[in-house]
Amino acid sequence: MPTLQKDDPGERQGIQSLEIGVRLFEELYKLQRPATLSELAKLSRMPPAKAHRYCVSLVRTGLMQQNGRGLYGVGSFGLRILRPTAALERARNLAANALPDLVHEIGETTFVSAWGRTGPFIMNVQDSPKPISIRPNWPGDLPLYNSSTGRIFAAFLPPERLEPLIAAELDRQRIAENLGVKAIGERRAAFHRLLAEARRRKLSRTTGERYPGVVSFSAPIFDRDGTVLVALTSFGLASTLSSSWQGPVPTALDALARSLTERLRSAF
User: Is residue 255 located within the same domain as residue 190?
Assistant: First the structure.
């Protein structure tokens, strides 16, 4: 039977054995390799016999598994829990490592982004080698409506997550620009047309909507389930970056994003 652990006054009681089991699983995960019972017992600071009882329960739940040599590893259920974080980190590393060669090829500043609370945020930036270039300095989540990065994430969000976010952005525009119901409706319809195009092309684009004279393209990197893990965004002045869908920048972005998606899907 689980024992109840009484915390400091005013705090709720907790199930001590559950907490110990979670800590044991955490120690195994941090090792990043299969471990012996003796190793797990030492790391969790408990006798091997006690550690074994927890391992038996963790194996039954699928959080852990034991191979033919008696070594313990992360189980199938544990992998399902950890996979989103592990896949995101892997996607970020793959994309960040590819940035220097990509920027050398296309000559435009490029960044990697991932989903934040209400939109994507910038994680890694590789500056253009040009004497004069633009560097992103947006501190929080990027907008969905008028950034190519926001559009490519929005294009693959389920409607129940997307609609409240778009409603909030459009409401801020309504207040800031004193827009009427008709204008907001037109913007909503135009935005959904852009998302449909982004889904079809697996690319999104802005041509000065957010910053006049600046063109940007974004390409998504997906997991096995079709969720956008990270995106690659290249941008520059319209005088040097063609807004054509067939231009060298979107072509290179698309090719790299598809290649990294395949690498991720083969690993996870």
Answer: yes
Q: Are 204 and 198 in contact (CB under 8 A)?
A: yes
Residue with tokens 């002045």: 237
Provide mean pLDDT across the span 244-268: 93
Question: Looking at the structure, do residues 19 and 42 belong to the same domain, yes or no?
Answer: yes
Beta bridge partners of 72: 35, 66
DSSP bridge partners of 234: 110, 217
Which pLDDT tens digit goes with each residue over 86-112? 788 889 999 999 999 999 999 999 999
**Amino acid at site 85:** T
User: How much is the CA Rg of the chain, to the nearest whole Å?
Assistant: 24
- How many domains would you assign to the chain? 2
> Facing residues of 115 across strands?
120
Token representation of residue 84:
């989103």
Residue 121's φ and ψ, nearest 5 degrees, are -125, 155
